[in-house]
Design brief:
Elements (H helix, E strand, L loop, with lengths): L1 E6 L3 H10 L7 E7 L2 H11 L3 E5 L7 H11 L4 E6 L4 H9 L4 E4 L4 H48 L5 H10 L8 E9 L15 H20 L5 E5 L4 E8 L7 H16 L3 E9 L5 H13 L1 H4 L4 E2 L18 H9 L3 H15 L7 H13 L2 H6 L13 H40 L8 H8 L3 H12 L3 H19 L4 H7 L5 H12 L3 H7 L1
Parallel strand pairs: 1-2, 1-3, 3-4, 4-5, 9-10
Antiparallel strand pairs: 6-8, 6-9, 7-8
Helix pairs in contact: 2-3, 7-8, 12-15, 13-15, 15-17, 19-20
Amino acid sequence: MLKVLIADDEYLVREMLKNAIDWQDQGFEIVGEADNGKQVLSQLAHTVPDLVIIDINMPIVNGIEVAKEIYTHYPLMHMIIVSGYSDFEYARQAITYKVTDYLLKPIDDHALLTAVQRVKHELDSRALTIQKLQHWDASESALQSVRFAHFIKLWVESSLSNEQVAANLHDFQVTLPSDYIQCALVELGPSLTELSPPDSGYSDAADNVVSQVLELGTSCLRNAGLPWHVLHRVDSRTLTLIIGSTYGFEHFLPAALAEWMEIVHAKHSLSLTIGISETNSGYDSLPQLYMSSRQQLARKFYLGHGSMIRPTSIRSQEARQSYLAFPREKLSFLIRSGQTANLRAILKDYYVALANEQTYTREAAFLFSSELLNLEAHRLVQKQVTSDVIHQVETLAELAETTIRILTELSVSYYQEQLTKKDELVQQSKYFIMEALDDPDLSVELLSQKLFVSASYLSHRFKKLQGIGLSEYINTLRMHKAVELLSEQDYKLHVLAEKVGYRDPVYFSKCFKKMFQISFSEYKRAR
């Protein structure tokens, strides 16, 4: 909404002006009113209205003096003068101070509406012009950025001569001496992608963070005495840094970059990983330096996010091993038997070995993880997990964590299934026992045959889960069944023994006394 201030020394006139038209419908809100010129001037600074309606004949400071002050100090502010006099001199002065309209009292509602609409039209036209200019500036800036990015691309690809590089730097108004030149690639941490919706590329929030990171980098480099540099965004998470100087600066650069990394992490919780090339001279050395910085940044896989990586002697790809052998059967057994602690310990040792970049290539680590997951490929398919998940990681630590987590979860699921099956085994045993309690042939061997497991395994599992041996459990049930039957009817010893599965009445009698600490005959008499 546009803002309007109404000034007249007569209260009724002010009320008439406030109610003569629907201000809100015209896009205005009344932000203040005054009954003298001094009050108007004091309110201008904090209300900053778009339109001021001023009565000429106000006390202390009259309307023409107010119009002069507004014209001088607030040239974009619109004014409408109201007066009870059709004095030509007043009208002439009002025109001098760019007053939009001059209305005579008593004020006609339609004349006021027409004047206000004229002001609104002029304000809208000005806003549209400003918007177009801002858009043009932004478009021109974006185009310039695209041109500069293309220049850097051609430069690092060895497509420009020294003279062409120098000419482009001059055109872009960039000072970059080439006596000493160095390149670095800066990768912003993966947390930056959290600021962008999936598959959306850049986002305003991410762009804003990157802009601040660029500003902080420039500030740190300048403070370190390295004013001649190019710091440019390559893609959503990568920046190119080219430093030039007339003197050697390799000893200053690491401290400046370390400060930059620390400030960015403190302000944005964002890691910077920097691959630094060696130093050389001449613009034509940049392509080689750029490739060197790319090679150093690639070592982030071993060193992790937030590392500053300088050139070091690494054995060639051919001299390092691209495969790490491992005991497949042993690891498969650990996974399926639920031995997660042993599994994790062994896998961690293998990843520690793979962290030696002098011995193993990056490909060896990914191949190792891929083959580990292939041990349980069918299981991963069931859980809708594909081996592609490991190719989304950026460091060896992330690769190890992801692979170990997946295999640990698989191992736990195997163990839980085994527990479920073992519980089912016990429940099925109990069911068969109850169904065949009066069968003299009921035994551990018979149950194991019915359940298709070995007798020793069945006995072990039953006792571990129930806390009582299987044979003892059968005898206990038979004794309690005998007591239950006796409570219903008076049975002779041999008849009762047969009803609860004993062929030998004497053996039944011994079992009864052992269980209840009283003989069968004594129990019957005591009933």
